[in-house]
């Protein structure tokens, strides 16, 4: 047996022994998802703060990195980039309402763009088998993005929280399914 295959088999054996942890984590995610669904405004604010804090932490690492490579030509740009990232993260944390407006608008525009790209790709693949699935996916994504855009700015209060909630529930269900599958293959 090849080394990568042996390593994968070992990982799967270990995962099968811990199937219950996957199920427990999945249940926790589902509960958190429904909890977030019960208060979408709070979930949106939590999402905004999470993004802002991550940006601040990333900025700190980027600034430290800039000083660690200060002999490089790009030292100033690394440091400046970290500073701007920190400023953006701080702005998000200090004014989550404005951040929610901006991020929801960006989400709407990028969702529309993603849907349109899939539509174009599907039309180019029209002769290929299964192209209709790509077309349907692009159409639904573009319509969802348009709905996000038409609901803006009012949906800025709840849309990001809704997406977080749905993601937590889906991820939780996937973990529960994986855990139960691992249990059944023991």
From TrEMBL:
UniProt superkingdom: Bacteria
Transmembrane segments annotated in the record for this chain: 21-42, 48-67, 74-94, 100-121, 133-152, 158-180
Keyword Translocase annotated: no
GO cellular component, one term: plasma membrane
Keyword Transmembrane helix attached: yes
Keywords: Membrane, Transmembrane, Transmembrane helix
Pfam families reported in the protein's UniProt record: DUF308
InterPro entries listed in its UniProt record: Acid_resist_chaperone_HdeD, DUF308_memb
Listed name of the protein: HdeD family acid-resistance protein
């Amino acid at each position: 047996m090849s080394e990568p295959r042996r390593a994968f088999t070992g990982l799967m054996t270990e995962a099968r022994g811990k199937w219950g942890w996957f199920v427990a984590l999945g249940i926790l995610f589902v509960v958190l998802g429904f909890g977030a669904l019960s208060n979408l405004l709070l979930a949106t604010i939590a999402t905004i703060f999470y993004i802002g804090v991550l940006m601040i932490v990333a900025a700190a690492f980027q600034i430290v990195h800039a000083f660690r490579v200060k002999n490089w030509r790009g030292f100033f740009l690394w440091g400046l980039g970290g500073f701007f990232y920190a400023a953006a993260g701080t702005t998000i944390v200090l004014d989550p309402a404005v951040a929610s407006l901006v991020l929801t608008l960006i989400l709407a525009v990028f969702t529309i763009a993603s849907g349109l790209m899939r539509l174009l790709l599907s039309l180019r693949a029209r002769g290929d088998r299964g192209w209709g699935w790509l077309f349907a996916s692009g159409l639904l994504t573009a319509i969802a993005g348009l709905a996000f855009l038409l609901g803006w700015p009012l949906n800025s209060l709840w849309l990001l929280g809704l997406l977080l909630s749905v993601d937590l529930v889906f991820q939780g269900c996937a973990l529960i399914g994986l855990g139960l599958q691992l249990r059944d293959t023991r």
